[in-house]
Amino acid sequence: MELGIGGPIPPLGIMYVSSYLKKKLKEIDTKLVDFYFYNLSDFIKIINDYSPDIVAFSSLSCEKNLLLELSKEVKKINANIITVSGGPYPTVSYKELLKSRGIDFVVCGEGEEAFLKLINHIFYNYEKDLLNIAYLKDNNIVFNKSELYADNLDDIPFPDWDIIEMDKYFEVYNWNGVNKYRRYMPIITSRGCPYGCKFCHSTLGKKFRKRSVENVLKEISILVEKYGIKEFHIIDDVFNFDLERAKKIFCEINRKYSSSLAFSFPNGMRADLIDEEFISILKKSGCYKIYFGIESASDDLRNRIMNKNIKIESINSAVDLCLKYDIIPAGYFIFGYPGETQNDLKNTFDYIKKTKLIIAHFFKFSDYSGSIREKSYDSFFEYSEDDTKYYIYKAYVEFYDIKRIFRIILYSPNKLKILLNITDLLFKILIFKIILKLR
Length: 439
Ligand code: SF4
Fold this sequence. Notes:
Blueprint: H1 12-24, H2 40-50, E1 54-58, H3 64-77, E2 82-86, H4 88-92, H5 94-99, E3 105-107, H6 112-124, E4 133-137, E5 140-143, H7 166-170, E6 184-187, E7 190-191, E8 209-210, H8 213-227, E9 231-234, H9 243-257, E10 262-269, H10 276-284, E11 287-295, H11 299-305, H12 312-324, E12 328-335, H13 342-354, E13 359-364, H14 385-399, H15 402-411, H16 415-438
Parallel strand pairs: 1-2, 2-3, 6-9, 9-10, 10-11, 11-12, 12-13
Antiparallel strand pairs: 3-4, 4-5, 7-8
Helix pairs in contact: 1-6, 2-3, 8-9, 9-10
The chain binds iron/sulfur cluster.
Residues 193, 195, 197, 200, 237-238, 270, 293 line the site of iron/sulfur cluster (SF4).
């Protein structure tokens, strides 16, 4: 049900790199193994059978241990296989990864062009200066950082949908919770974000780069016609940064598909960049859920310390607009940010009780930028890691009261599935309580 978050989504970053390499290097073959669906022995068998020259990993910080274990397994199978890692976590933690000795190269930031240059370097010795690639040379880390971002996103081929086992993703939960339609696909219509939230990994850079409306519509039409996709999760860093363009995309979607498709924004939108016209266009086009990054109800923490630069009033207005148009407003919160005080916590808990949000997810702070904990704040930590876990648990319990669960059912585009999930959850809680009593 909607109370949790997790599960795999089709890995667009890898799918983009795969299609880009196939376009540029005709002799290349790629295979994707999503570890959510496989275990270690499957992985070892696949590596032995496929016998790759390069094994590349994409991972989040919570998957760090798995990444280190798998990269070492690859080297055990064949020490000549080149191991590469990329994505948000490796981009900021390349030093730690290289020192583990399982990873040969780390692709930092946007993957397509950097990966192509790496392959040219490895196999053809074309590239003398590897940009945005970190590696060890004589035990020293070499890293030439550059603003290597594609300017014309329309030149990048569509993701390699054929590399994934698509149907498997439809059977498991994803970070959007319960979808309206079973066959869904994430899409990215723009890259980069000019805002400077201190907790953000900013892997795709500070410059907002956009695909043309026609290019986005072409991708949607292929997914609808060739793959039978009916639902789209837009996962741009900041889809509504250029609001007029965002409106144009959805006017076109509405013109072509009316409201026969479904849309959701699980990566969040800026609450201060929306207006009523936009929300009404979204609704007409089949949008049923929008997430907002709220982070904390404390203005001081959210704006002065995190540098989010968004007022709580803007967030509340955006939530009200969503409700007016029967779109589910959902929010993300962070607990345990360095500098969060007891007073900030009190503000957040007060807010959780009275907010009109229908869904909320609460996370423990993760230092993606790798530098936040090194800086000093007025009060660094007023509570421990265990306290953070407790506050997250408390936030879920306080947020999801009976009234809220009722509203989730009411607003959900897939009421039957939500009801089944709630029944399943209540049954599990009952079993859990019986086991506790029998002990
Ligand atoms: S607005 Fe979102 S994408 Fe942009 S810096 Fe802040 S958290 Fe990152």
